[in-house]
């Protein structure tokens, strides 16, 4: 796969056909897409736990009311749901940060969590448990089967934390109103 066909730094927008799956009405941010497969995070599936509550559960020392303490932790995908990931802006200056673009990186580093809890973290971030993963050719096949729309990502929507409206907003980036799409195929 050449880099011009990679969906890294794109949104995957679930089509209505995925209504009965984990990915129903989701938007996923793709971090890596190559011949070996794809990896990303669902950005609009909030869990019933705030970052502050998570930090308390895993004993991360933090300020009593740090910024973003009420931000919800996201269910990033069905793969390794017990593992935490931080998608963030800024240079990859944390322990295990890997760049997605020149502006966005992903890390599993513990030091970024401590920095967030003490208002020294990245300007924009989201914290997800688990990730979405596809094997070699799997995502490409799902796109050919019309399971997904794709759109270039933008940081405003990526880090907006507006989980309720994200699915519709991501589709609007490419001029599509999802309310006009149906999950049944017709025949002429």
Total of DSSP H or I helical runs spanning 4+ residues: 5
Q: Could you name the CATH topology?
A: VC0467-like
Which value, in Å, is the CA radius of gyration?
17 Å
Mean pLDDT: 90
Strand content: 25-35%
* N-to-C SSE string, H for helix and E for strand: EEEEHEEEEHEHEHH
Helix fraction by DSSP (H/I, runs of at least 4): 10-25%
Number of domains: 1
Number of strands: 10
Poorly predicted spans: none
The coarse overall form would be globular
Short description:
The chain has helices at residues 51-57, 110-117, 138-144, 155-158, 166-172; strands at 10-14, 27-34, 37-42, 46-50, 72-75, 79-89, 98-99, 104-107, 125-134, 148-152. With 188 residues, it is α+β, with helices and mostly antiparallel strands.
Task: Describe the overall structure.
The chain has a single domain, classed as VC0467-like. Strands 1, 2, 3, 4, 5, 6, 7, 8, 9 and 10 form a 10-stranded mixed sheet that branches. It is built from 5 helices and 10 strands, in the order E-E-E-E-H-E-E-E-E-H-E-H-E-H-H. Strand 7 and strand 8 form a beta hairpin. Helix content is 18%, strand content 32%. The protein is an alpha+beta fold and 188 residues long. The longest helix is centred in the middle third of the chain and has 8 residues.
